[in-house]
Input
Amino acid sequence: MWLDAHQDAEVLPGLTYLRNGCTVDIQDRGVGAIRVGGVGGCYGPSDYRRRSDRLQGYAKRHYTSDEIERLAVAGGVDIVLTHDAPEGVRFERHRRGIGYLSEAAGLDVLLAQVQPRVCFFGHHHTRVDTDVSGVRCIGLNKIGMPGKSGSHRYGAEQVGLVTARRIPREQRE
Output
């Protein structure tokens, strides 16, 4: 992927690429730095134990245990972003059936070790708010859907970035 070859995390002004298993510090005038760590990709049982630098082609869509281990030792992570839901997240409604449990190995262990303030994940396109390994985990729905939120408060702190909402036609400019 061309982004992996890019040396600087900031690929365009104001746009930061968060590599798998890495962190980035976001400066906030009121709070100071917020450390965000991430693991992108889906769980793939056949690729999980392989080294990430050995994945090729379609397999690059999976995260690997070495990426999890790299983030687990980062320290001071406030927010963890993952593509897949940590193992054990239960979905009331899911294409695989009512009460489906995520099987994405390693992400639950990562959360237990890192203990961030919150974890956000996507992939399943279902709003979920649950606890995994003592960490609040929030599944995000498709942002473009009216009423679907991508901005969240955790206590008094704003931890999300955007909220999608329908603006009534008469209020649009």
Helices lie at 2-5, 65-72, 107-114. Confidence is low (pLDDT under 50) at residues 149-173.
